[in-house]
Amino acid sequence: MWTVVMADMHGAPVEDDASLAERIVRGAIRAYRLHPYHDVDAVVVAETCGLAPEVVERLFPTWDALLLVTYDRWAQLRGTRRATVPRCTVDHVRMTLAEDVADPGLVRVLAGAVTIAASERDFAEFFRKRFEEYVEELTRGLQRDVDAGAEQIGIPAYQAATQLLAVYEGLQVQMLVRPYLDVLVEYDRAVRTLRQGWRTPEPVSWDLDAALVRS
């Protein structure tokens, strides 16, 4: 996917911009693993990947753009080393949370992404789209579970997905501000409560005004 120009006129290897961008993104991931979120800037990323800050700023003149690409690449890496396949969507989210515990730098980036998504900054819409895509992914997964008989849900799947995501993201925040908390234990407790609620169909909401008109 990434190409490298092997040598310049002096015989030294030269990376093209695509290869440099990949190197910078990997450096950003490492930087966020090593440093607090607000301590990471172009200088820190440049030091981590062994490039001049000017190179980072040339290829990523907007910091939010680098953060978005880093977010996407890091998210792609999650789950690639799983030894077991999740049995259902709830298990998939639990495995993801376990990976977050082992890699809290990503959670700090996700927390920063929430701030951007809630703002009016240039890249806010891109970050909001990532959150919407994740809700859609969970919705499809829960619906597959229902169709396969692995989950009993008496409410629309997208509502269940929103609730599951609220638990997951809430525990992500908790693990950052309350590091002594066993978020996996709390996830299991919360999921038991969620599933009890999911199995109870929502009561029908009657339109009393419409009923009076018909009568």
Features:
2% strand, mainly alpha, disordered N terminus, 67% helix, 10 helices, two-stranded antiparallel sheet
Biggest sheet: strands side by side, in what order? Answer: 1-2
Task: Return Rg in Å.
Answer: 22 Å
**Number of helices in the DSSP assignment:** 10
How far the N terminus sits from the C terminus, by CA atoms, comes to 68 Å
Quantity of strands, as a count: 2
Q: Helical content, roughly?
A: 55-70%
Characterize the main sheet: 2 strands, antiparallel
- Order of helix and strand elements from N to C terminus: EEHHHHHHHHHH
Note the beta-strand portion: under 5%
Shape: elongated
- pLDDT averaged over residues: 87
| Helix/sheet category | mainly alpha
Describe the structure.
The chain is 67% helix and 2% strand. By secondary structure, it is mostly helical. Helix 1 (17-34) crosses helix 4. It is elongated, with a radius of gyration of 22 Å. Mean pLDDT is 87; it is low at 1-13.
Please specify the SSE layout and strand pairing:
Layout: E1 4-5, E2 14-15, H1 17-34, H2 42-49, H3 53-59, H4 63-77, H5 89-102, H6 104-117, H7 124-147, H8 157-177, H9 183-198, H10 208-214
Structure in a nutshell:
The chain has 215 residues and is mainly α. Helix content is 67%, strand content 2%.
